[in-house]
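Kindly inspect this today.
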Amino acid sequence: MRVKPLFVIISTLSLFLAVVLIYPSPPVAPSKSSDSTSAKSDIWSVQRIVEWRPCKWWLQSHLTPLPAKSNGFIRVDCYGGLNQMRRDFCDGVGIARLLNATLVLPKFEVAAYWNESSGFSDVFDADYFITQMNGFVNVVKELPPEISSKEPHRIDCSKRKGQFDYIESVLPSLLKYHYVSITPAMSQRRDRYPKYAKAALCQACYRALKLTESLEKKANKLLEAIPKPFLSLHLRFEPDMVAYSQCQYSGLSPTSMKALEAARGDDRKPWTGEAARIWRNRGKCPLTPNETAFILQALSIPKNTNIYLAAGDGLMEIEGLTSIYSNVVTKSALLSGEDFETMHGNTKAALDYYVSINSDSYMATYFGNMDKMVAAMRAFEGLYKTLFLSRRAFAEFTSRGLEGKLLMEALWKAHKDDFIKGRGSALSDCFCEFKL
């Protein structure tokens, strides 16, 4: 008979229910807000919804054959820092292809703040560049004898206003003189470029520019010396940068104030009154090292994080960062004295660029040429732990009187939203948005 076992089962279940009713389980603790800084290990744990990847039309499309005859020779004149010159040169590659011109490798003058020997080949591997650009654009190291004795017809496009068109403004001079030098325009319309010209620009920027063997060896030596894993932090708070911003800062040390006043001179006086407030709230003021450390804490970056400081010489108020994040290393500390002393500003910048691309994560307190190029190269390599710290958000929240925990929570949300959407993580000319 099956009656007895059924009776036992029913009795057991009844007893279990009675125990549950008499001794209920303890209440579940309420979950913490997902925006709270304590709820996340760090900003990198946030799930992204967008990634920027190289566009398929560039990587996979068949090349449009180069015309049999060139319209002439173009040299790109580049000025400024390393990554500004890199940007202008890449633009020049696209322009040369657009105009069916042969590209002459640029010569960067000492006056343009290049490195000690002022040559393209002192920083980049020229032979590698020419090989990688095969089929995209014709490139020569040297001009033919009938051209080399002449100075190029100079066309400065950098100051042109409005949307600049090279076919209308440069091609007639190229056809007339056969050798022109140009300074690319900031406001050019790349969206009007045919895809073969865009492809040449993209190939140059992300596949063809490689450091020289000796410089890459030094960069790898530096990379190996950095404790792993590490965050590369591009921190901009040098006297000339702060002076250029025309922002006011209180509480700076006497040493910093002296350096800042010297950099300001007579033509870079800081904004005052309401104008200063508006300027700061627009995000125009560089973050101090102390403000940077506060944002890192708001993003739950652990205080024992290994940080490589990618920064120029003369960084002010660095104690504001190192008093909180003690594992900060610099290239001057990691390289031997001889290695470091023989380097100039832009070869040092090349090391920062290389290390930042190969870092476990990258943050920048600015949105300059280096930051854009590093972010784009990291996206090209599939490295998405990249974030720009928001000067505008920090200024806006502090102007409202937020401080302490409330300020941290507001900064967490602002940066979380940026990271989720991948804002500013790549250059739109060569990259496409992919929904995750």
Residues 163 and 189 are 6 Å apart (CA to CA).
